[in-house]
Amino acid sequence: MRKIKTILMSDQILVRQCLWVLLEKAPELDLAAQLDFAATELEEVLELHSDLVIIDPDSSDIDGSDTIRSLVSGTFPAKALILSGRAEPKRVADLLNAGASGFVPKSSPVDELLWAVKAVTGNGFYLPPELDAVVRRKGSTWSAAQPQQVILTPREHDIMVLLAQGKSSRAVSEQLLISVKTVEAHRAHIMKKLGLSGMAALAKYALRAGFIPLD
Description:
The chain has helices at 13-23, 42-47, 65-73, 89-97, 110-121, 129-138, 140-145, 154-164, 169-176, 180-194, 199-209, and strands at 4-10, 29-35, 52-56, 79-84, 102-105. By secondary structure, it is α/β, with parallel strands linked by helices. It has 2 domains: 4-145, 3-Layer(aba) Sandwich (Rossmann fold), CATH 3.40.50.2300; 154-209, Winged helix-like DNA-binding domain superfamily/Winged helix DNA-binding domain (Arc Repressor Mutant, subunit A, Orthogonal Bundle), CATH 1.10.10.10. Strand 1 (4-10), helix 1 (13-23) and strand 2 (29-35) form a beta-alpha-beta unit. Helix 4 (89-97) packs across helix 6 (129-138), helix 8 crosses helix 11 (199-209) and helix 9 packs across helix 10. It is elongated.
């Protein structure tokens, strides 16, 4: 499987180095470079022909919008994923309008960043559930251009919740009066839509999204 060539950009050395240590454990990523966001010339970034650029614009006077536009519209376009501690809806909407494919708050766990990477590089995009609706109200251009974050059909949602609760495919099939084969097909489609791998990841997603209670 071809790995995702990834660049990390932040003005803060500690942020870049910590991200590198965390993300180098992800087998699907090929970490190509860690660069200073403000000091690096855009041409240098474009010459690396990366698939994904994870950008932390927090400590820079540059808002990141121009960089994002250049990254996503160049000869070798890359996906841009924003990692930021500033999650004001208008700011997030502006970055998405510029062409970013996702936004992850710095308060998020590492698993959420990895989910976002999978969603973005899988020709999707990512916003945490708590930001999705409010950002759409603030960012008309982006809202009109993008589909909802991850849309599950009512049947997929029911199956996802039951599986996340720890029920087996057979138990789900009996409860919903469908075949085990149908449950398995839905499960595979749900996991692909959400960019997840394994039932533990599905359970974490359902918990964070509020679909199942903590207890």
